[in-house]
Structures
1.
Amino acid sequence: MAILRFTPSPDEEMSPEELAAYLTSMMPEIPGYRVMRRIGKGGMSFVYLAVQESLDRQVAIKITAPEILRDEVSKQRFEQEARTIAKLEHPCIVGIYEVGRSPQGLMYYVMPYLSKGHLGQRDLRNDEMRIVAVLRSLLSALGYAHTRGIVHRDVKAENVLFDNADRPVLADFGIALPFRNAARITNVGFAVGSAAYMAPEQARGDNVDGRADLYAVGVLAYEMLTGRLPFQGNDALALAVMHAHDPVPPLPIERRHWQPFLSIALAKSRDQRFRNAEQMQSALDELERKLRGQPSARLPAAPAGDGALAGEPPDSSNPRANTAVAAVAPADPEVSAAATSSAFRPWPWAAAGVLALGLAAGTWWLVSGLTSDGSGRIVLDPILPQPDPASVDDPIGAVAAAVGAIATEAPLPPADADTPVAAAGEPLPAGAAGRLEFHTAPLPYDPRIPAARELVAAEHQIARLRLSLPPGDNAIDSLRAARGLAPRDPALPALDDALLAAFAGQFDRLLAEGQREAAGAAWQRLGAYADEAGLRTRPAWARLVAAREAGIRTALAEAARRRDPALLANAEADIARFGLDPAVFAAPLRAARLALLPGPGARLAGPGPAMRLVVAPTETRSGWAAMETEVSRADYSAFASSTGRAASRCRGGFLERRSWEAPGFQQAGDEPVVCVTVADAEAYAQWRGQRHGQRYRLPNAAEWQAMARGAANSCSGTRLDCDRRPGTVRAGTGQASPLGLRDIGGNVREWLAGGREAGGGGWRTLPGSAPEAIQTLADPRGQDDLGFRLVREVTLDELLAAGSRD
């Protein structure tokens, strides 16, 4: 179907109504781009696949719906804010190539085209670690944007795309706004964002901060865990009411360990959610440790203070701006004494409450048990204000109820009659929980410093040997992101050196475990980063290469010592796998190959007839090899047909002329040719050599004796007479000699160089004749029991290059 295109006059812009009709029926014209087809449409935008003509690359162009931006003021604000968003550079954020306005007045921006689909098209319900990885990438991206004052406002499954490396990236910051800018892009009176993921305050049209994005991340987590959204309604208003008032639906029993995390993430009041992406990331890290069966990581205590809200720029005047919330041991002496008392019994409601509070602070530390004398209370620091227990926005009660529901599924010790216990689904009664204090702990980095978080992450990942995997949580990705944010940071060189040193040990381990392909893949990933970062000229890179070269030299020496071809093959493959210079290993490679050279009797590789090595070559002289069997009648026939050589007269046959074609008995093509002269044999050798690029010849007497040493006749005594009839049999029928040569002691005698001698025995030979015996011939004519086989020179370089067939 043809693509309709229409280009209105470039001298005046069209009205919003005209533009809407234009986009409905036509393909837009964007200068510098060839628009191919529409690939998406939402309530606020159209998305097109296009080709950027200057770079010949595929891109995605998002055009804002014309009715959204109706006047020049809103369009200018869009352009200004889009350029602000375009400055976001983070590995988990889809960048913006260009922001512009078409001649007709269409507002657009250009992004990379990612063809691997979005999160909503993937089923991750059975892969919790993948869910954690996706959430980690989103929180990393949002934390980066929030510290720069940008709130996304439309985090949803369709805006989580996957790049060519299958890493999740956050797209469509197109409706994002700077946190400090209270003015909205639209003035038509509706909330910006997708209702299924929208925080209650966003649905009400209130000014929002980064905690609205974190709420949407919580919705995504629920959706990935269950395959469905937590709230589902027929219209946006119904969804908004559900998000504002309905409790979070419980997770399936096999995913109930996520419930406290989601209860905090999806709290109705933003003051009771995670304060920022870092705090939510800390809770996620603790959850991952729980999934992996690892102990909880407790943050050190610090004086209580306020932390920065998600989406707020850090306050340089606040010395405690760089803080995260952590749960610490109870400071109340009564609680401490009760926890250590031998008469104390842990009650499920108390454990659930403590776990809920720990989750609210971004940690999963579970106190072994708490008690109360009836006057205890839950104490919260200023970061999580004390909520009204009767409020629907009470996250402590909601999470405690969820955890309590989990706890009641297992047998519990009996409670005292006078001990208050909260039922599942009810908030804890006031005074029924032990005292737990919350404090702030310093973040390991200063969020005001560009790339500080990425550098700290890289340091931790190097320590855990997460060097290039898994995607989104490895040192290379973190260092790449840090270099993009702060390319001159003084910490980068030391971390790069530490990365290279860690890789050296990782390569040794992978190779020792036989994981050569994994080592090669890791080397490729490291090499790509080294090229980007200019590491190949660094001393640490030279040390890494030297370590690989030393390992290969050791492997080659071991291959030579043990005469092990597998070790040699691995070493040769590693030279190519790690991109090393083969010339550096010329000497040890040659030594290993010499040690592994085939010995006498080995079958040689290469074109031509099967040859067995008789004398191996050395550094100072060539060796030689002989054909396994005599030249067959079929081979000689091919030679005669190719060259037109006339048949020589054969001795015998008083009443008829004999030749190789009619030797006096019937022959098959695989039997040795007879009735040929020395001249015939030498002509055949020259023809064979021209075809295969080798120099063939007849053996001399000394060489024959070397070939025949240890050979014996076969089938019937000292004669090769396997079918009890006169004449030849199939070549190779007889037993093999120690060198693997067949028919040395029978079938036919064989011409030797010079034309006056023959070696071995034939079908006419008398019993008792030794195979190495040499007979002098008075008649140079061919005979019906006289054939030939060839030998050729073998060089050391040939063996080194070709190896052996055996």
Note: Residues 611-802 form a domain with the paralog of FGE (formylglycine-generating enzyme) fold (CATH 3.90.1580.10).
2.
Amino acid sequence: MPEDPRYGFSGRGRELLDIERALLRGKIVLLHGFGGTGKTALAAEAARWLCRTGMYRGACFVSFEHGGDAARVLGRLAEHLGVSDGGFDAGDATAALARLVPALVERPTLLVADNLESVLPGGDAALPAGERAALWQALVQLATASKGGCGVILTSRDAALGDGRLAPGQRAMHREVGGMDPDDAHALAARLLGDLGIDPRRAPYPELRDLLQKLDHHPLAIQLVLRALGDTTLTLKAIDEEFATLLPRFTDDTETGRSRSLMASLEYSLRRLSEEQRELLVRLAPFEGGASEDDLLAITEIPEAAWAKLRPALEQAALIRAEQVHQAVRVPFLRFHPVLAPYLRMRAGAEDEGLRERYAKRYAQVAHYLYNRDGREPTEARALARVEMPNLRRALHLRIAAGARDEAANMADSLARFLRSFGYGRELEQIRRQVEEPTEPDGPAPDGNFTLAEYLRESGFAEDALHRGDIHAAFHRVTALLQRIQDLPEGTARGRGSYEHCLVLTLLGRCFEAGGRPATAEARYQEALHVLETLIERDREQKAYVRHRGVLLAELGDILSEQGKYGEARSTYKDSLEIMKSLNDARGQAVALAQLGTLAMHEQGYPEAKQRYREAIAFFGNLQEPRAEAAAWHQLGLIFKRERNWDEAERCLRLSIGLEEDAGNAAGAAGTCGELGSVARLAGRAEEAELWYRKALKTFEDLEGAASQAIQLNNLAALIQQEVRAGRYPTSRLAEARALADQCLKIKSNLDAYSQIWTTLEILASIAEQEGDKDAARGYRREARETFAAFPGNRYGIDKRFGDLISLLAAAATQPELHSHFEPLLSKLEAAGWHIAAPVRRLWAGERDWHALAEGLDGNDALLVLRVLETLAGTAPPPAEP
């Protein structure tokens, strides 16, 4: 067997399982793929593993790197089994097999035939057709005649062996060996750096992750490229940016043959191409990692007849492989060997200006196409965007270098949608910086307006800041941009009343929403809707306007729900859903349905809410949109928290945090940390809860998110106060709790009236009570009752549940003969936790001071009594729409 890989074998668990299953079914296994992916190492590891498990009693390894035939296989196998005496003739396949098969039945053996590409046509040791057929015949007979006594694993760069018996099907399984799993690739890189004595700080994770991805997690490439860090003047950034120039330096002098250098490995494959094919190959130099076949042909202008020969030649040489990126996308994506394009850029003709111009312009069109397709067919669009992103980013760089500022800004805006959805915050920041870098501008607009590039740059930076939780930075950019727009007369491009005006008002509403000002956000959304409806009236065919109206209504629904206006919110969500259905916008429909789930949760319709969130998790997971998936997991966790299912709540919230952190959403992860703190507190784990709350608070302090800080300050104050009351924390911590609550109250006082200020007032009341200040406690509770009762959502919940009862209790106040009929009902309410029997009896007796009646009641009990008083006095506001 070959020696173990120098840096150990890891990962490939799925491949090993597939190999084992295929061998158990009596199939020949062909491992194929690019050179250097570890086919030989995988075959050897499978042999060792299956011998250890007892499936085989031994393994025989035969290398074809320098040639070989059927006799070589039969002879080596005979030596391994101990039957190669003077009478054994490896050249007589029939007689040799007659000796080998009984020995294999007695001693089951796994045969590994390695590097078979060498004996294929065009290989270094190509066999004549007859001898190659004899080799395949011998391998098939060994796998079948011994009745399971001989398992066969083949490795080859080229999967086309030219024999139907070895084609994938009942007799054979083909398993492509691609790049490693990202985590396994990172582990390999870490071991390599350690063994070479390279300081791991010289390979920071974000830059290392990007380089490994660029290398397609290719094992040989990882080993040879990272060795270059032994030169202390090199950095990962320099390696990434100057990869083609540095390619000759990616070597390992301790190795021989194809594995000695990346160029040696690649040139071995290139030798199989004709001179004419090599000349055409240089046209692939602009691409990054591969390309969709239609784009490749449009850019390279390779004639159809020539491509019909070149593509199969490249596939057989293991330089490209065709992938279907999505079942609805018929055009294949041609994945390049990770070193092919950098290698080609060193060749004459690679810098052809016409080629580069076609490349950049084509991918600018692709970016626009994908942006528009994302609304209608998001799964297909995102699958394409993910594989084409390296090309899209390179094309953006070329458009900027060409001075096409507006086109580049448009392209960056299109890419931002995907990078943001994928959670690639670092990459998004890089392209924003690219667009912002000073280059020769296109010049001011003829009417004195600011350019499209300026608008897209400023709105893009604002949206990025908002997504990472930097509300102040977002608000500053949005308000400045809005002022520029409103200073321009109506009818001016990007001026007052334009679509850009509507978009900026929408963005401003999001800033207010994130900053804890839902009423102000509602006003901005309504203003944006007014602008948008005027635009739609002028041009009803403009689908972008109609789609944004659906988005706006969904966001308005969130704000209405946050303010407790649940009836209005439901109506708004349904209007949004209908618009998205009319546009066949699958993602918009998923968002609206998830929002209806949130509404169901507020109304305690937990089964419906769970179903909605699970559907959202599946949908956004399929889209690979981590932030939206994280939000759905978060909401599902909140439902389980309300149901007091602590284990499920914690599981869902932890999944949410992982996705938020992967997406670089610090604010979202911190909010979920706070919810994990609440789960820990309710489950009786106070010290753990405090750690979660403080972690969340620290993040929000760094982000300067006042509304989110207030939530965590409130949580901490409540926790400490409750633990002191229970005797588990010292009374000296009451002062700390009071300071936290005071700080929270100060923040909430500057927010809208819907910040649940009553929860903080209740905490301060409890602290004052524990400190013996009864007057202060009474004052805080009075104010808490008033703010709780003023919140429309609380009134909506009471009216929905007790609407008829409220009217009957009010009527009974003027009809004493009815009192006895209600006493059993009052007793049932008391047993259910609604402690209103005594206040209602006092109300029937003529008492009308709500605060006196509500003394000692919680917010919901006090509000129920207030609603009876209001109904009796005829001062109740109209009931909320169901």
Note: DSSP finds 40 helices and eight strands in the chain.
